[in-house]
Amino acid sequence: MHIVDGALSSEVVVTGAVLAVTGISYGLRKIDIDAMPRVAMMSAVFFVASLIHVPVGPSSAHLIVNGLAGLMLGWSVFPAIFIGLLLQAVFFGFGGITVLGVNTVNIALPAVLMWWLVSPFLARAEGKLVLLAGFVAGSGAIALSSMMVGLSLAASGQGFVPTAKLVVMSHIPVMVVEGILTAAAVHLVKKVRPVMLAPAGSLRSVA
Amino acid sequence: MPRFPSLYAIAVLIGTLFTCVNAQAHSLHVFAMGNGDVIDGYAYFGGGARPQDAEIQLLDDTGRVVFAGKTDDQGEFKLRVSHRQDYVIEANSGDGHIASFKINGDELSDQLPSGSGDINIDVSQIDTASSLQSKKTPPSSTTIARATSDAIVTLSRDELDSLIDAAVSRHVRPLREQLVAYEDKVRFSDLLGGIGVIVGIFGAFAWFQAVKSRPRQQNKKP
Description:
The complex is a heterodimer of chains A (207) and B (222).
Chain A: H1 10-30, H2 36-49, E1 53-56, E2 59-62, H3 66-73, H4 77-92, H5 100-124, H6 128-155, H7 160-192, H8 202-206
Antiparallel strand pairs in A: 1-2
Helix pairs in contact in A: 1-4, 1-5, 2-3, 2-4, 3-5, 3-6, 4-5, 5-6, 6-7
Chain B: H1 5-19, E1 28-35, E2 38-45, E3 55-59, E4 65-70, E5 76-81, E6 87-92, E7 98-103, E8 123-125, H2 128-136, H3 141-148, H4 157-184, H5 188-213
Antiparallel strand pairs in B: 1-2, 2-5, 3-4, 3-6, 5-8, 6-7
């Protein structure tokens, strides 16, 4: 899921950077002070989760938790993911510095989409439906991210269909695991601290 | 009935995941060594998985691609080169991961003509399956060993050199593999450091926001 330096054409890198800056600045404006610890926590969770590998045959995929992060942060998922990715690049050599923008967009945009689709339903859901909504958000975010990685590589001159197939196939186990994880997490949060599922920035408008 | 079944589910899931956690940077790596006139090595993902049929390219010291091929189903490759110089091997697993590794010319046999910029370098891929066959047949060194028991073997200086080279590279290889693996390891201190930095960044941001939104008169006591 982390595309490395040198795999993409400069057009794609620049486009990714522009989109990422837009998303990050919009996300930063959406964070209010009450939601700050939550954004920091999800950023840290994302940073650590990428070290948890789901072994799949010849490839190697890891958790991303962008579905859960999206549900809890809304637009603020952009700065959270960006900081996580930046530190992964610096500490562990995941991805790289020039492709930070593309990677941020590939991971954060599906998270925002899932939040936009699932959040309204989640707010009204009860019991089993909460689990379902969580599963859809968790696995759907990974599926979309895989597609976007395929798109980024295709725009840089690789064939889209084989590349996307490769990335999506190797992430199917991750989709299942993250679906279950997100379902369980959302279910728990809804019981204990339902306010945490109100995305960052919406608290101010409510109060 | 536990009060929060979800909490247990998460705990169990994280627990099972941590049993198969590889604290390895998730990225593609490639490792190769020169031995005689052969460059052999393998590509691998952090965590140990080997990419099958990953694209590999051999670049000469001017950055020209002198060979393009694929790894076998063990992620390995074996290339015979015609000239002695520094090479770079690049691997691309096709899903956004690229890795490269530099092979020093002095690992290759000095009986090869040393190449420079504008010559044609012949590179041929050796089938790794056939090389497995040749590993099973006893190498010629055993005949030397048998001969030493009853007669003195004469070796030319060149033959002796290449024998020593082969022996040294055979012993150095595991050490170099360990070094590369050590570099790939995610260190727990880095992990904690990263979390600390994240908390610090958002903490500073929150502080900045708090200062900005607070009226100045607030610190005066009414």
